[in-house]
Amino acid sequence: MKAEVVDHIVPHRGDGKLFWDEGNWQALCKSCHDSKTMTEDRYQEYRY
Q1: Separation of alpha carbons 21 and 43, rounded Å
Q2: Which long-range contacts (CB under 8 A, 24 or more apart) does 26-31 make?
Q3: Using CA atoms, how far apart are residues 34 and 29, in angstroms rounded to an integer?
Q4: What pTM was computed for the model?
Q5: Model confidence at 1: pLDDT above 50
Q6: Is the residue at 48 inside a domain?
Q7: HSE-up of residue 3 (Cα within 13 Å, Cβ side)
Q8: Which of 5, 38, 10 is nearest to 23 (CA)?
Q9: SS3 label, residue 5
């Protein structure tokens, strides 16, 4: 599959500096990105 989205290797979780760090980017197809993100966020504890 071709790359369709830019993925953050280390999830930025709202950190603007990490979000725009090009060294933290990788190209993934949408299916791979969605699987990776769902796995990483499954047990993430969110605080409001």
Answers
A1: 24
A2: 27/3, 28/3, 28/4, 29/1, 29/2, 29/3, 29/4, 29/5, 30/4, 30/5, 31/1
A3: 9
A4: 0.71
A5: yes
A6: no
A7: 7
A8: 10
A9: strand
